[in-house]
Amino acid sequence: MARYKNHVADGHQGHGRTRRLLTRHAGWLLACLSAVLLLAGADNARAKERRHFLAYHASWYETPAATAEATTLAGIPGFMDIVALAFARPDAVYAGDLDISRTGLQYPYPGPLLRDAIRLLKKRNPGTRVVISVGGKNWHRFDEHALARLVRDLGADGIDLDFEPEDPACTTLPAGKIVCGSYALWTDYIERIRAVLPRPFLLTVPVWSVGAYGEGAFAEDQPRSPWTGSMLGVLRSSAARHIDIVSIMGYDAGPRYDPERAFAAYRSVWSGPLLLGIASQPVDPSSPVPTAKDVARLMATARRDAKGGAMLYALRVCSPETGCQHGTDYRALARDMCLAMRLDGCDRQVP
Fold first, then answer.
1. Average per-residue pLDDT in the chain?
2. N or C: which end of the chain has fewer CB within 10 A?
3. How remote is the C-alpha of 347 from its chain's centroid?
């Protein structure tokens, strides 16, 4: 009996030690799991907070190449996380087989090589997405089906809808509200593109410099132009739910234009990612060429916004090789924008 009691006591002590051991191990495992979840949460937060840098790639200035590795497109650094291929036509003719000759894109190499360059760019920079920028004339022959085929066949990630009507037909009503005849066209093109390219395909929209002026606190902002308020109705419409990113063409509006004020105006009507654009070569010679100090100030405005980002128009435009009488070397401008936005990888060479 005594031996039995001792055996039982020893057994209880053994179970006690086991419970204490399991408790310690459980605590250790819980601590490890908590640490993993915290790190995962931090990674997710960083992913959500990533600042977008959209850069247009001028196809007409691309250099001829025989391999994907030799293209400048494939060498774009990762801090430019959205690359817009400029420009496909709204009435692009594309039946398939990667024949891009009638799409409007002016790359000096065939479609299969363009597809391979996009693949290589995305392999080198897994976070980079490529969109096809649609711009130019003949919007009345807009062919969303041809554009969607082109996006899919090239392995691109969506469309940049660069619709710039020659006359937005805007009127200010007596109550101070702006209405534009171009609103219906905008919403039609947005709805049609999203119907053929549902998410996760991207739909990015570059918007006119003064397109959010003309009402409320921004009613008197200058300069006044036919495009004043031309995006207000679009961004307030139900079609706006289909847009992923808005980028402000913060240039070519003359010396009185204030891009920082325009950013505030657009933010008042658009809550999503909003990019402030800078041009390496403004078309309007009266528009000031941004200095390094200007870039730092403008990008600081975007950086202070939780969803602010940068847009550059355009890579390959304005350089010693291509020539530029009124502008800034796009490579230096890209680096300055990256540094001002405090992005990673700003030391990467822009080809």
1. 89
2. N
3. 21
CA distances for 215 relative to 80, 171, 200, 241, 298, angstroms: 34, 12, 33, 22, 23
| β-strands 274-279, 308-315 pairing | parallel
Tokens found for residue 219: 């009613």
- φ/ψ of 105, rounded to 5, equals -65, 135
According to the model, what pLDDT value does residue 49 have? 62
Q: Parse the chain into domains and list their residue ranges.
A: 1-49, 51-341
Length of the chain: 351
Q: Strand pairing partners for 111? A: none
Phi, psi of 315 (to 5 degrees): -65, 145
Which tokens in the block code for residue 191? 């709805």
Average of pLDDT values for 328-349? 97
pLDDT reported for residue 22: 40
Alpha carbons 102 and 108: distance in angstroms, whole number: 13
**Residue 134, pLDDT above cutoff 70:** yes
Fold of 51-341: TIM Barrel (3.20.20)
**For the chain, how many helices (H) and strands (E)?**
8, 10
| Greatest distance between any 2 Cα atoms in the chain | 106
Confidence check: pLDDT of 74 > 60: yes
What is the Cα–Cα distance from 254 to 222, expressed in whole angstroms? 10
* Residue recorded with tokens 């890209």: 334
The three-class DSSP label of residue 306 is coil
- Asked whether residue 98 carries a pLDDT value surpassing 70, the answer given is yes
Q: Are 272 and 307 within 8 A, CB to CB? A: yes
Structure token pair of residue 324: 């530029």
Cα–Cα distance list, 345 to 49, 65, 69, 105, 339 (Å): 16, 26, 20, 29, 9
Three-class SS state of 34: helix
